């Protein structure tokens, strides 16, 4: 039975993304400022369908730790769920995303106009400087920037070395960094067909000052992700 619900959810994602994307192409021309709110509405609908059809819910604690204005959320990345949920929780989210996503049919060309930030992960120092400038501009505009310091999806319970770019970005922009732990458990496997009913838990920790040195910043994030977690 659950496999049927999972397949239905996948079908919804494909059909609704194409339909919404075509409408958003029109918005990009006539009302570009509405692109982000429209995308947020679609994300809320997608997570509602996920709950109703697949029985997967989520709960969030620590939102009181989110400063007003520009901020960096340094979040764990365990599944595709992470790429949707912040559209529903934040007023003006800006995901740092791999530039390959710009090549997605229909939707790819809408991400940057909606305020998302693309990065060339193979671009080295040049790409990092460009990213810093974009994050700085987003912070000045009062946006919440979501970065995944793990660099890719990491299975629940696994640990990886965190990417140090988050330290350079925080120090250069002066933005506070909020660590975010996630526990998808068995409820959202890397292979989404294997999802199981349950609750995904998200926890925001108190903000770290932007001026922390590399070792202290990475140690604080590692502790939040892998030692303290959402418990």
Short characterization:
The protein is α/β, with parallel strands linked by helices. It contains six helices and seven strands; from the N terminus they run ααββαββαβαββα.
Task: Describe this protein's structure.
It is built from six helices and seven strands, in the order ααββαββαβαββα. Helix 1 (2-30) packs antiparallel against helix 2 (35-54) and helix 2 crosses helix 3. It has 231 residues and is an alpha/beta fold. It is 42% helix and 16% strand. It is globular, with a radius of gyration of 17 Å.
List keywords for this structure.
single chain, 231 residues, alpha/beta, Glycerol-3-phosphate (1)-acyltransferase, seven-stranded mixed beta sheet, 6 helices, 7 strands, 16% strand, globular
């Amino acid at each position: 039975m659950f496999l049927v619900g999972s397949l239905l959810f996948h079908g919804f994602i494909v059909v609704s993304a194409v339909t919404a994307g075509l409408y958003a192409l029109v918005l990009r021309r006539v009302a570009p400022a509405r692109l982000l709110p429209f995308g947020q509405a679609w994300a809320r609908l997608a997570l509602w369908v996920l709950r109703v059809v697949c029985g997967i819910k989520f709960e969030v604690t620590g939102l009181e730790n989110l400063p007003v204005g520009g901020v960096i959320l340094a979040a764990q990345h365990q599944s595709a769920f992470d790429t949707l949920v912040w559209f529903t929780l934040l007023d003006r989210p800006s995901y740092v995303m791999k530039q390959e996503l710009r090549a997605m049919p229909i939707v790819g060309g809408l991400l940057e106009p909606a305020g998302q930030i693309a990065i060339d992960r193979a671009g080295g120092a040049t790409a990092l400087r460009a990213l810093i400038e974009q994050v700085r501009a987003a912070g000045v505009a009062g946006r919440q920037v979501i970065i995944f310091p793990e660099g890719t999806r990491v299975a629940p319970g696994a640990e990886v070395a965190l990417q140090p770019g988050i330290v350079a970005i925080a120090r250069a922009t002066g933005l506070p960094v909020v660590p975010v732990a996630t526990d998808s458990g068995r409820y959202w496997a890397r292979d989404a067909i294997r999802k199981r009913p349950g609750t995904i838990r998200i926890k925001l920790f108190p903000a770290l000052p932007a001026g922390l040195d590399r070792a202290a910043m990475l140690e604080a994030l590692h502790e939040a992700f892998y030692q303290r977690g959402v418990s």
